[in-house]
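Hey, can you fold this?
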Amino acid sequence: MLANTLRPSPALVGLILSTICLFMLTQVKAKQVSHQVVAISTESPPSPMIEFAQELLHRQLRQLHHHSNIHSIMLTQDSAVAKQGFIIQPQGQQLTVRASDDHGFMYALLEIKEQISFGTSLANVTANQQPHFRKRGLKFNIPLDARNPSYDDTGSSAQQNIEAVWDFDFWRHYLDKMALNRYNQLTLWNPQPFTSMLALDKYPGLALDDVYKSTAPLDSRIGAWGEAGGVSPLVLKSLQKVITFPIQDKIKFWRKVMAYAKSRGIDIYLITWSIYTNGIGGQYGIDESIDNPKTVAFFREAVKELIITYPDLKGIGITAGERMPADGEVENWSREKWLWQTYGLGLADAKVIKPNREVSFIHRFWYSGYKEIADYWGDYPDDFSFSFKYIMARLYSSSSPSHIAEKVIPTIQASARKTWWNLRNDDIFVYRWGDPEYARNFYTNIPTDITEGIHMGSDGYVWGKTNAEKFIDGSNRYEIDKHWYRFMIWGRLAYNLELSKRFFVNQLKLQFVDADAEKLYLAWQAASRIIPTVNQYQFEPGDRNFAAESVSSRETFRYVNDFQVAKSMPKSGVLNARNYVKKSLAKHDLRAFVSPFKTAKRLNRNAKLALSLAQQLDTKNANNVLQRTLDDIRAFAYLGQYYSAKISTAVWLEFYQQDKQRAKYAVNAKRQIASALKAWQQYRHTSEKHYHPQMLARVGLLDWQALEQEVMFEVTMVDKILNNPFLIPSTNDPQNQLSLDYDKTLNGESRHQRLQIFTPDAGKYRVDVYQENGVWINSYQNKENGPARWEWFQDQQQGVYYLNLQWRDLNRVIKVDWSKK
């Protein structure tokens, strides 16, 4: 009886046996897959930043089964170490990390993780680093809603990201990647974000519940969706709800995002333009008039509540202008007065309620000046800095000191304030870029003594979820993953400018374990030098005036004729085709200049190297990440060959038109334009393997097949010029139905001389541009119905021009005299 009483139940026997088996299995696995346990000690409870890096380090040790005589890592506070910097030293069986703040400790642990991933033993890990730029940020235009768009949401990328910016998993991933790449600032840009982020007691019903998109067809032409940053009736008539999201939940969402950013050592700023009332629709008497007291009262209240509602918001940034009248146009009002009455007094109101709350302030140096800013903001109590576009919209143009920034640097130096440099990438959207030496030289030339920080991003592209990929997986679902190398290059060098080529080669080895990383580094670098070379030859500072990937401005494809008279980058020494030929025929000494032939050779040299190395690295697997990367390298290279042949064609056309001995140049021009077409066809084929066409917000549709028709038209243009160089414009517009606006100034400010053609009710037209002697130099064909506007910037070429406009059955010739200033 006793034995029966003590007999365990079958269930208990099963549990015991399972436990024994699990223990034995665990012991076997421990012998097969062991790793070193490294204790990380801190003098105080670890912060979320330290915990984040600590977890990644332990994960790396587990994956590598790492062993060394180091058994602990001691984090020691040391005020002598520069903020965000760190020193790592092995001492016996311990690794000592000294830093003065949590940023330094986090970056130190990430550095240890990285070094052991490169194959360094813990016992040999050493480092002594401090930040080159104290603030290293990204610019992110947030398309909150069709009713609260970012600056220009007419592109595919913005429409694909309206839902993404309300997805916390996206932000968690994005902010983690930022921290890994040593970014510590995130600037979120939206013209009027308040109605999607606040519930104002004084303005019930104004907050926007839920999230909406527009079903209107994407159209980047001027005015099609309304002025940039605004909301048009077309958009409001075509709203579609995509997320049910009450305003109180929206507030919780952004608080959560900001708190998470803080846990990764990242400050968040909200930067706006003025004056925009998107999503308000005239309620409470609010409009976009600078002298409307109801508008002023709303913005003042919104700014106050923004600071109170979001305790983890680091700062605010503002933009004078865009939608403001020039100073003096409205009695008793100026741009700075309005900004002070709204943002300045709103911040003061918040400080009455939260006296210890510090709010960093960024004032963009745009449509304003130092004296006007200082008159109102001179006594701002917290951090106050400027923001200026370092090289306008052309981050990928030249790493030499910026001729754009040179204009404002003396003012900043005299002000005793510092500036953020806005590094605007409106050059490269599709293809993977990677040239560490370009970024290193670029940063080296930025004056650190007046620099508050840098933030990199675009106005016409949203760097969130990818939108044009044919094959999507974990490597390219988000832009920060697809373009991992580019984001890493700019972030890591902003923190540590001393990183060697070996560091980047090691990173490529980690990503592509079976590839020759040295060859990949060189191939990627060569391909990445294509766009800067093109931009130096055809330099357009504005985002909508040129996109190298599509060879287009918002108004027109940039034909070969345009490249005859291209505006070369100031202070680059680069000559366009026309100036080069003039100087050559006049026997000038050209040794101090970069000739267009030299530009073409540089493009060809980099293209040839990139293609050769890519061929050696080819995997023949169309859908793996390395192959996609190699095809992006090839796409850059073929585009470079296209531009090389196009520039060469432009030179031969100039010789043909300027030199009386024309016949000998015709063969060269025809041969080069044929080569341009062939290179474009290879560019199209390579691009279409991986990408769908997409609408680019500032410059129109990127559709390689459609654009190929324009390249083919270039061949026709060259033939016409060679066969009949002196074309006579015809005139037939008795009712004067076409209109032309020749704009030399705007709001009293000197601007580019600009030709504008408006067709209000039927947009299909063609324009041919001729010199006074009848030589055809450019043409443009608009194929869309509806209102349209064409602009032509040629302020560097003075002279008399004729524009032959063909619209419906009408022709009209307009004479434009640009010889008069």
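Oh, and this one too while you're at it.
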Amino acid sequence: MNFGYFDDTNKEYVITTPQTPLPWINYLGCESFFRLISNTGGGYAFYKDAKLMRLTRYRYNNAPLDSNGHYYYIKDGSTVWNPGWQPSQTALDAYECRHGLGYTIYKGIKNELEACVTALVPIGADCELNKISLKNLSDSKKNISLYSYVEFCLWNAVEDMNNFQKNYSTGEVEVVKGDSRSCIYHKTEYRERRNHYAVYAVNAACDGFDTARESFLGTYGSPAAPQSVGNGTSCNSIADGWQPCGSFRLDITLEPHESRDFIFMLGYIENPADDKWEAPQIINKKKANELMEHFLSIKDFDNALLRLKDYWSHLLSGYTLEADDEKLCRMVNIWNQYQCMVTFNMSRSASYFESGIGRGMGFRDSCQDLLGFVHLIPDKARQRILDIASTQFENGSAYHQYQPLTKKGNADIGSGFNDDPLWLIAGAAAYLKETGDYSILDEMTPFDSNPDNQAPLMEHLRRSFHFTSTHLGPHNLPLIGRADWNDCLNLNCFSTVPDESFQTAGASEGPVAESVFIAGMYVKYGRDYAQICRHAGLTKEADDADAQVEQMIQAVLKSGWDGEWFLRAYDAAGKKVGSHECEEGQIFIEPQGFCVMAGIGVKEGLAEKALESVKNRLDTKYGIVLLQPAYTYYHLELGEISSYPEGYKENAGIFCHNNPWVSIAETVLGHGSRAFEIYKKICPAYLQDISDLHRTEAYVYSQMIAGKDACRFGEAKNSWLTGTAAWTFTNVSQYILGIRPEFDGLCIDPCIPETLSGFTVTRHFRGAVYHIHVDNSAKSQKGIKTLLVNGTPVEGNMIPYQKDVTEYHVSAIM
């Protein structure tokens, strides 16, 4: 069942009913100011950090679902309605929502009155703009009242939710009414901090206002039926403690077929550090006035929308695909790259599944996300790598998360996730392959965010690599620590002390559980580290790294192979995890994907067996599940993974994030049709017809789909903020389509289904534009027979980087 459709021309997803299976959202903002907005106007806004700088409130687990946001109420006679249906839920005569790239438009029609809201965050400004367009579709005059409504958060979202003895006394606002605009200043905290406030404004003289939520809604009222709107009045309330809000009332007369437009703005203002005012309660309105002067007009709004569209068109032009498969093209050209940019901004911090108050930016998460956006914004990717590296400790481990506002590690979560260090190498290697900018290796970067303790980024990578080398367990496999990529696999939580035979030099102190998955990472990214060393002139170090990688390969072949697939791990007692010897959890997806991606067992024929086992034991019609059989009871020695019911999340759910690993692994073996089959199973564009089952947005990836053991097999959760976005784009762009950046140039190595007759990719790479046409008339799955670059035959499939060439015309015949 469909709830909308793709408009590829306008790069929009069009939702045709407000009652989607779950709220279907979009993200506004691509710099510092952000707004989450649902198809019915729900959501909230924040500046940089959804925990520390929250402008408006949002209540998760609310009932009705998604019933607080930035709303507009229309009172037309005795009828009260919202253009986006929520929160009044008055039946509309017509409805449409268009989620575009960085903007959302939702429109409702009721009783021959059309109301259309266009919402965006302009480039280069810290504010959200809404244009509401009202049109009288009837032959009679209409007298209506338009009410706006936002509920302010008291900045720190955690404090806002729990410190009521303080909060109920700190709310403070100021209202300024003028002839051409009206403003509400949210000054809460200004007396104390004196460096920021919010402004809520409209480009009209209001006929009434409210800044106290209780006055607007009523003491026992709700956003579904505000008391002020029902009464057709405003209380002109001034918040004094309690819950501050922002509401304007505009009384409007519309002649037959007349249209009127209004601009509303919610802005964040931060005063200069040296700003001094005699009275602490008086705010400096200079920057707020400048912001309003710049945007509170129809012309300025329309220009901001055009500029935003131009920004995204230019940004997404870095990798474009032409092929016969329109679903493949829309994901590659629009939605997958767009989602990658959202994960760049948000990591895992703020979605309709992440509250924005805890996780911040993830070390591992942000490194993986970088794989999907480095080609789009290499300069910002460079800074992101340095930010991530600065949370590393001197021994090579790192804080698992950091706050985006302070860029300091999250001490509450701490460290000990032993895959983290290798992800830094993965991110740095992706940047170097994309840009060839080796100067980043010389950038002085702090340890533990301490400016007095710095080292070049190259030293950070060295310590990342050697952290794994020096933290090996009894089988010479990497120690897992608190967890590896799978945060729920907690193999050292079991209190049994292993016997002396499980003590080695690398593990003589502390727990000894080992990860075959990290071993696969070490091989794959250890090879990248060796190449980085060679490019940096560190030949001996490169040779040493290659030797240690080879030792790890042998350790996996000796102790990480279970006969038909790769083991997942060894627990703290030295028992196998992910083995046919186990009662439950006999095979896991992660090592099958990553070990084969790393090339382990390919020449020995083990890789083929491992992927065949995945197909036979883990594959389903909705994607590959994480493990089988599912855990049916809690296993103390395994930790959180077995706390989930069968088929959900890490306990045999379809964890979309690692499905691309298996698809990439299939391309390593030349299985183009199988790789593409895996790709399509979790790809939103191919799943639109089962949206009623899938439930999450039909245009972006979700983290998890319920597995075959679950009661709700095929239902998705945790949309938008997931490493699935970066890994699927890496998979489809670099391994299936095969246009892959390498240290020495651009590699043309497609691995496609034999049914795909060919394709054309335009790819920006190191200051040049590559026009690449791949001809698959031979119906091959992998292998380039001839490669022409600007009319000249090239041996192999690598186009060497040439500094002075700015345009390449590439013809590849499979």
